[in-house]
Design goal:
15 strands, about 45% helix, 6-stranded mixed β-sheet, single chain, binds cytidine-5'-monophosphate, Diaminopimelate Epimerase, Chain A, domain 1, 18 helices, 5-stranded parallel β-sheet, inorganic pyrophosphatase (n-terminal core), alpha/beta, globular
Length: about 475
């Protein structure tokens, strides 16, 4: 596990520089990724700057590439803070922006980028031996920066917890955290901001009737139950569960331990008979639940996982500003807008998944590698959400999953994931970067979740490179 003392040491000069920039009244642009981790990390930096009375703006982008860098250069802000993006692109930033930028990130970067970062502009987990795929997301890195700038910013630790679950870093036993994530969680707990409990991880555990909560839970995605309220109702009723009390629907948190075991048994039986999945979904259903104590009991922001889903929805549907406003504290108009966006996002995802499962030719699957063709169906900003969802489906367990779609600009975008129970040592981030760069595209990410973009004409070449790379030990996590 990484050594956070080296990180703490590097944070001092990094924050000194940021403080000088902020206090000298410079116009700062925060450029961040549009997913939940991007929105939280960008918002944490925005809040830290706002509290210093700095002049700043925030913008989200779906990925960092040369055209985004050109636009940044043309906009000519005094300084750029790039969060959750830009790993491996330091030399391009240097060329376009001189020394007027910093990156706060957690994606694995080439050794060369660490060695050439003389001015300490790349605040990346990996350079301190911290696994940015498992131990800290960009939200956690931004939190480290913010809390170094001012101890008062420790109240932003709860947003870093939202970032960690949003980035699926709750991968230790029973969905607990590792390393720096755990340290940040301890801070959030000690400040009374986050409570942690072991429970069934249903969406709306304090707010929705049990059958609705099950239907709204999309990880694991269970074909036949997810988004199907009536079949969830039938399943739970047939399992003998008392769904109503005095005419009022009972919410998941009101069920006893014994009843919860019956709920898990019923779901497990359903999965085993309907998908013949060799892996049990039970491990994916029961785990630590992170509750934001300061949020309203009826709010979708109270459960850190639901909060992160809402932020993802905002980003993916092109309304990142709503997500940023919510992170920055708006609990009125922006929260209502966020809830509507979340509902729209669920409908869109449900339509995509039903098309993918009904048009069988879209899926090619050899038992180890599954490739999904989302051309003409999946909007490019939704691609990562679709691959995350499919990776949690018990009908595709243990696979290396690749989902693609054709973008508006005619490039192909790929999103890859290790599915539930996948034991492959392949490092998807290294594979995507290598194969995409080999055909004139760009890509990267983590061992278990990565993406890339390639030119239209390079599709066949890219796929053949991919087939070789997934078995190449140079691109395995053990390498
Ligand atoms: O887009 P998607 O959700 O599949 O991306 C998975 C991970 O890979 C994210 O953390 C994303 O930032 C990273 N990624 C990357 N370079 C790309 C595309 C995705 O580093 N070109």
């Amino acid at each position: 596990m990484g050594d956070s003392s080296k990180l703490v040491q590097a944070l001092k000069p990094f924050c000194e520089n940021l403080r000088n920039v902020a206090e000298s009244g410079k116009d700062i642009a925060i450029i961040t990724h549009l997913d939940a981790d991007g929105i939280t990390s960008g918002s944490i930096m925005a809040l830290a700057l706002a509290r210093m009375n700095a002049k700043f703006s925030v913008r989200t982008v779906s990925d960092m590439n040369q055209s985004v860098i050109e636009r940044m250069k043309a906009e000519d802000h005094d300084f750029y803070i790039i969060t959750d993006l830009g790993g491996g692109m330091a030399s391009q930033f240097r060329k376009a922006l001189g020394s007027r930028w910093v990156v706060i990130d957690h994606h694995q970067i080439p050794e060369e980028e660490i060695l050439t970062d003389d001015a300490g502009q790349v605040m990346n987990a990996w350079r301190f031996g911290i696994d940015g795929g498992m131990e800290v997301p960009a939200g956690g890195m931004a939190y480290m920066v913010a809390s170094t700038l001012d101890r008062k910013n420790r109240d932003l630790s709860s947003l870093a917890v939202v970032a960690a679950v949003g980035d699926r870093q709750d991968q230790a036993s029973k969905r607990s955290f590792l390393g720096l994530n755990q340290e940040i969680l301890e801070t959030a707990k000690s400040l009374g901001l986050v409570n942690v409990e072991l429970d069934i991880m249903l969406t709306g555990r304090e707010t929705r009737p049990l059958h609705e909560a099950l239907a709204y839970t999309s990880f694991p995605y269970i074909d036949g139950l997810t988004w199907n309220t009536s079949s969830c109702h039938t399943l739970l009723k047939n399992a003998g569960l008392k769904l109503k009390d005095n005419g009022r629907w009972r919410v998941p948190s009101e069920f006893s331990q014994e009843e919860k075991s019956a709920i898990v048994d019923a779901i497990t039986k359903f999965v085993v008979t309907s998908s013949k999945a060799p892996t049990s979904v039970i491990d994916e259903l029961v785990g630590y639940v992170y509750t934001l104590a300061g949020e309203d009991r009826r709010s979708q922001l109270r459960d850190a996982r639901e909060f992160s889903t809402l932020l993802n929805a905002c980003g993916r549907i092109g309304r990142s500003g709503v997500g940023i406003a919510i992170c920055m504290g708006d609990r009125n108009a922006m929260l209502s807008a966020g809830e509507q966006i979340n509902a729209e996002y669920r409908t869109t995802l449900r339509n995509y998944i039903s098309t993918i499962f009904s048009e069988k030719w879209r899926l090619s699957d050899d038992g180890k590698v599954a490739v999904v063709n989302g051309d003409g169906v999946v909007a490019e900003d939704m691609l990562g959400a679709v691959s995350s969802l499919l990776s949690g489906s018990p009908s595709l367990p243990g696979r290396l999953l690749f989902v693609r779609t054709l973008s508006k600009d005619s490039t192909y975008k790929f999103s890859s994931r290790k599915s539930l129970g996948c034991k492959s040592p392949a490092n998807l981030g290294l594979i995507m970067r290598h194969c995409a760069e080999g055909v004139g595209g760009s890509g990267g990410g983590h061992a278990a979740a990565a993406g890339c973009r390639i030119p239209h004409s390079a599709l066949e070449d890219f796929v053949s490179r991919l087939k070789v790379a997934i078995n190449d030990p140079r691109f395995s996590t053990a390498a």
